[in-house]
């Protein structure tokens, strides 16, 4: 009799795990489906966009070896003069290291009080400019891009980030619990069951319900480890405090982070000239000639909507990866380099939390990682569908039995 007690307890435990798995699945299934499907689209967003926008990205200017780019602030004025119909001026520029690529100016306007996608993002455009002639090649309205729409649907279900982002975050937490309970339920009782749990054995199986059950279990098992990584990195975006927790754990239970606030612009404004920004750009290129690009905030001091303690520049190493970046701080009046820190000098905790996006979309491992992330997202999208079919079949079976 005593030997039956552990088995009985185990059976009760699995019974409650099944109920938890079922009801959490019904609660979050539609959101997990939407987030997973949009994830499959968004994985290759930058790759596809870059391929389709070759005429914008490359200016096609001839004989650039014997030409110099127009000074950045002068170029900004030329660009804004051509954008007279735009509501907002161009106030920031992305400069590629490759001289055959166009400069990109950003036009942004958002409503922080907006409750949905259409009310929040008012203007979101990229202006592609030939830096040698000042000609505006194209104005790319990202609000009309299916990829941008998909990204917001993925992140916040087209609602405000405060509401939609929270819903997605909670659904993702539920998904993590479901992955864990799913593994517990999947775990085979003996060697004979183990043979059926690792691969599809359908030679003698004719019923589609059994096949659906196997698809749910087997795909769920093989995708669970990587799905946990994708889900947890997604939660870190929905709830930023979780990123602090991860930082704390990796940093040896310490929240210490380097403080660069003492690097401030101290030179008088009179030292700033129209070409100060160009000297800063030249210094960036000198230090990181093999990087991909860097951005500069060109907002005028008197019209600035935020305070400038200095000019901080993030240098991006790769086209489709964001973690490998370097930080440079300049005195924005004199152009003097105050601080320079390469990616390799960052703390392990900084590099780990900084890799959140790249891990989430698979870019951390290059194209193979993106392909895996794409397939993984399809697997995750299938789970709420196959799971619901299992639930519906059992529900109808119970009704028939009655």
TrEMBL record:
Keyword vocabulary terms for this entry: Membrane, Transmembrane, Transmembrane helix
Gene source species: Myroides odoratimimus CCUG 10230
Higher taxonomy: Bacteria, Pseudomonadati, Bacteroidota, Flavobacteriia, Flavobacteriales
Transmembrane domains' residue ranges: 20-44, 162-187, 219-239, 371-392
Protein name: PepSY domain-containing protein
Recorded coiled-coil stretches: none
PANTHER family (alphabetical): BLL7967 PROTEIN, IRON-REGULATED INNER MEMBRANE PROTEIN-RELATED
Highest taxon of source: Bacteria
InterPro entries named in the record: PepSY-ass_TM
